[in-house]
């Protein structure tokens, strides 16, 4: 009987394997197509019928991207906005999350639900009033303002994540530190932060991906060309009066995606352990 069961296990996995393969094709298919197109000439990129792989691979599209004088400026803006927004979100979210996890006060649950509810408000609904407000006080095209707006969108989830990670740390550890003479700041800096480091890495990764891929915020609140990001530059190419160069655009997409992909690869271990850390309460 056990032999029959064990022999049936591989057959039972076939549907799951096929389903996983289908999902992999759906997800990775467009990525592979974009990567292949980036190595094609423009003539081959628009050829009918299309070819999957370039007949003669070329790096010319990538060289064109790097030769573009505005590319490095757009790249720097993307990095500055993303890193600045995540740093500000962590600066606010870590103490707020810690307070939510360790302190009890009247209206705490209502406050936390309110913070969570703010993240559910569509950003598009706030574009027009925020635009007119910034325009009236002369703060359009301000990199600092864009960074603050991007940060405000990820602060609610940061507070909730950090609160869950802190709750997973046994409170007895802090009690022992208090008995040894440590103050609250020392406990947070030297004890809590090292213990929830994987969680912080997970929150930072989600924040970087969210802000890096943001288009509408920068396009609306920083319409000046010198303030745009890679995402805004990419979308602008679609509306270029000269026309779209698909091979060049795909090379641009690949380059614009690489920083996030490389970052995720570097912190993958921490990211996975961070997402599961808050699920198990010490």
Automatic annotation (TrEMBL):
Which ranges carry the ABC transmembrane type-1 domain?
A: 75-267
Is the keyword Hydrolase in the record? Answer: no
Q: Mention one GO biological process in which this protein takes part, according to its record.
A: transmembrane transport
Name where it mostly resides. membrane
For this UniProt entry, which segments traverse the membrane? 16-36, 79-99, 111-132, 144-166, 187-209, 246-267
Location(s) in or outside the cell: Cell membrane
CDD domains reported for this sequence = TM_PBP2
Note the SUPFAM superfamilies from the entry. MetI-like
Mind telling me which InterPro entries this protein's record contains?
BP-dep_ABC_trans_perm (IPR050901), MetI-like (IPR000515), MetI-like_sf (IPR035906)
User: What membrane topology is given?
Assistant: Multi-pass membrane protein
Q: Which PROSITE patterns match?
A: ABC_TM1
Name the family.
Belongs to the binding-protein-dependent transport system permease family.
Please state what the protein is called.
Carbohydrate ABC transporter permease
